[in-house]
Amino acid sequence: MARNASGQKTMESGRTLPTILATCLFVILCGFIAFPLLAGLLASFRPGRELVQNGLAINWDFSTMTTSNYKYLFGLLGNDSKIDSAKYFMWYKNSLILTILTVVLTLLVCYFVSYGLTMYKFRLQGFLFFMVIATMCVPFEILMLPLYQEVTMLHIINTRAGVILPGLCAASTIFFFRQYMQSLPKELLDAARIDGCTEYGISVKIMMPITKPAFASMAILCAMGSWNNMLWPMLVFRDTSKFTLQIGLNTLLTPYGNNYDLLIAGSMFGIIPILAIYLIFQRYLIDGMTAGAVKG
Q: Taking the complete model, does pTM exceed 0.85, yes or no?
């Protein structure tokens, strides 16, 4: 009994040390990740001139805090602020519309492409999937000029279609869907065919509900990518009325003056949609990320 107790104690202590080290490591990493967010949140409650003087820092001096930046953001400090506020929420609306359209269309297109590459057997199947994966190795900066020429030739420059269509068939999303679908039982398709279900009905009514965790995971990642995308929309859009939030906030930094009051408050307020999407789909995120890791 003494040996068992001693051995059990040694085993528990051996497990405890790696756990403590891993916990400390993750706490440190969380601190690095949370620092910019916390510093930006505190800076949004201080005048813009303090950002110029002190930069982003975690300063708990509550005497300098004010809500004037957010009042300025919502147009509560006079006519000039209302003009800037109207522009800000116009950019905000453009980003929301563009993100929603991009997420919905990208998920649908990538799902059906992955479904075809996974559930059916045909010649050149492996080659086509290899070509999809190969596009992930090409930086966007190399594809930027050909895509711009293509958008110009199709006469969809300065439109939402010009921003959405080139990235509609995302290779990373196709790869993720395919890895997820490979873990699903193929017997479901045979059973559905025996029952008289059409191929379209199988893909939409049977397989699509099963892949809900994958949809949720990709919805978060696609929404983040679309919401934070700045380079490609900046190349496509020419009218200021069509600018997204990222482009609009960038226009606040000029050689003639920087509107840090609206910039910092607007940046923090712009986090809300992505945070809301994560909170809605977080319970599916881990399932979607791990379901395709183990087959069988």
A: no
